[in-house]
Design goal:
about 160 residues; 5-stranded mixed sheet; 4 helices; about 30% helix; globular
């Protein structure tokens, strides 16, 4: 096992987070376009803004001395109504878990996920952490204690004029 050095992402890591997001989305079967795809500029601005919101956003990354940032995971805190099984008023969303293909199967994503979960537990008031898992990643999350919800996740895409 190698010694994995995880660090909290800094504002100048926004571009790396966009790159990792593109790798993740491509691995999920999405056409992410090239380096000049419009979503990338929007995502760069978005990540830069989120990285400045340290109370509600955290990303953790792993660097390779030659390749730069090669793995990462991110989390957001968002408002959520309390209920009988969770009296807190905020939840966590874990996402953007990605590892460059040349660095997979080394525990890097796991280390980043653990760092985000620890941030949620130690620095926020979230009662639950939610995520959407791929077939490739679901065992990682199960092994860390995540369980499937009894209710399916559905999505409605709003149209914009």
């Amino acid at each position: 096992m190698i010694d994995i050095q995880v660090r909290r992402a800094k504002p100048d890591d926004a571009e790396s987070l966009v790159h990792l997001r593109g790798l993740m989305l491509a691995a999920m079967g999405n056409d992410v376009g090239g380096p000049d795809a419009p979503w990338r500029a929007i995502a760069l601005d978005w990540f830069a803004g989120q990285l400045a919101s340290s109370d509600t956003f955290a990303a953790y990354v792993v660097d390779d001395p030659s390749a730069g940032v090669v793995a990462g995971a991110a989390g957001n805190v968002y408002a959520h109504a309390p209920g009988p099984n969770d009296l807190t008023t905020v939840r966590g969303h874990l996402y953007n878990v990605s590892t460059h293909p040349d660095f997979r199967r080394r525990g890097l994503a796991r280390a980043c996920v653990i760092a985000v979960v620890e941030w949620f537990q130690e620095e926020t008031a979230v009662g639950q952490i939610e995520l959407h898992a791929t077939d490739d990643g679901i065992d990682l999350y199960r092994n860390l204690g995540f369980v499937e919800s009894r209710f399916p996740s559905l999505r409605f895409r709003a149209t914009r004029a």
